[in-house]
Amino acid sequence: MKVLLIAPASGRWRKVGKNRIFNGKTFRFSMLSLLTVAAETPPDVDIKIIDEQIEEVPWDAQVDLVGITCMTALAPRAYEIAAEFRKRNIPVVLGGMHPTLCAEEALNYADAVVSGDAEGVWLKVIADAQAGQLRGIYRNDYPCQLRGLKRPPRHLLQGKHYATIQAVQATRGCENQCDFCSISAASHHTQRRRLVEEVANEIAEIPGRFFILVDDNLTADRDYARNLFNALVPLRKKWVTQSTLGIVDDPDFVRLMAKAGCIGLFVGLETFSDGNLEAVNKGFHRVEKYREAIRLLHSHGIGVEAGIVFGFDGDGPAVFKRTLQLLDDLEVDLIQASIFTPLPGTPRFEAMSSRIFDRNWSHYDFHNVVFQPQGMSAEALQAGHDWVTYEFYRPWRIARRLTRQAQRPRGLASLLYHAAINFAYYGRTVCWNIKGWNPAKERKLIFDLVPQLSKA
Ligand code: B12
What is the pTM of this model? Predict the structure, then answer.
């Protein structure tokens, strides 16, 4: 049997890997979704992975089954690809975050859908496909306990096109109640953890010194994380991951994390307004703690990439400049600016349903406004988001950040890493012409400031 697994890419991302100047490599990593599926595939099945960011889909491939992974923004492209293969009488199965949360929708476009983990149902999917009985939704209601997971067959990827293919996942899911988050919804606010020993063994086998832990909230269980960090210390590797800022209440924990090789944390700061955080059930992240927290992380050589979201109900046109000033002031190293996006399958999507004006999922990539914001017009939100991204990644700001980085404890050790990501973000603003304008300053349209008028 031959199986083709596809990671779709849409819009500007399709074949971005072939570009000479901005090839998106810095932002390309993991692929664990399909690698995990591949790892679960019986050894007598011939398997191939296609990543549409770097290669064409082989439309005329002689295969018996096509598996496609997708998050919401990639669902329309996944459906297009599925349609092409189904036209050729090749059955298609969809999996990943969007099909997990919107299984019934996804089933309209495929022969079968896997909702939840592949582990535990993929063998049945393969067997059913072999028997010509592939159909319906394969719900993984009793997800596996993550014991004895097989190694991801990373050799199936063309490693040179990725920032790193050395991605590891120690835990799955998140216990937080953030009502806008797909992870919370898909994991039903629970987290499963692999055995520390198994994770450490996998990491020890990784060639090279750098890897990424793609966990959603690695430090949620401090004891677990401590055990993992202790196991990582002797491996002398460098890694980055995601966490909440809550960890700074324990300086010894942060010290151990740094000793274990952590050089960067992605932290979903989301917003600098406490009111906004309360509104999305994320009140545990208090704004006044940010400064102290970032200083502590920096003092241990850990850089901070902040996830910043614009478009909360409490955000008005002044939010952009204020946020930019605070990001500068707090010495945040990197940002991923996003536009608030109510994702289907989350409680927030239902709650905002009447304000959503765009249900084309390909716009749900956190860079497009898909709902009517409360405190400004949709155009102002788009412009402000673009403006903050453009301003934050202006070369003079990058130079200032890198100078500071070089002066911090262990700063030189990760200077290259910081420089590479900063310039990749800068490259993206240039190649994709992201510039925007500050809605609070450039009063281009009076309507931008008064959404009611613009609707009238
Ligand atoms: C690493 C990562 C990225 C990386 C790389 C993704 C990649 N190609 O591997 C990068 C940086 C590129 C990325 C980008 C974005 N990401 Co991202 N990303 C992740 C992250 C943190 C880990 C992905 C991963 O490796 N998971 C590990 C695997 C094992 O888990 P899994 O994907 O759930 O797969 C399991 C099952 O779902 C199932 N399965 C998955 N696929 C398939 C396919 C088949 C056929 C089958 C049978 C089963 C199956 O089996 C797997 C094993 O059990 C996830 C969070 C998460 N926990 O998944 C967010 C996540 C997927 N990303 C998300 C988002 C929003 C984005 C961006 C839009 C963010 C942005 N602001 O730009 C962009 C989109 C870029 C684009 N347009 O292409 C959201 C998606 C939400 C949604 N509903 O769409 C997530 C869930 C994060 C979140 N907190 O909400 N991301």
Answer: 0.93
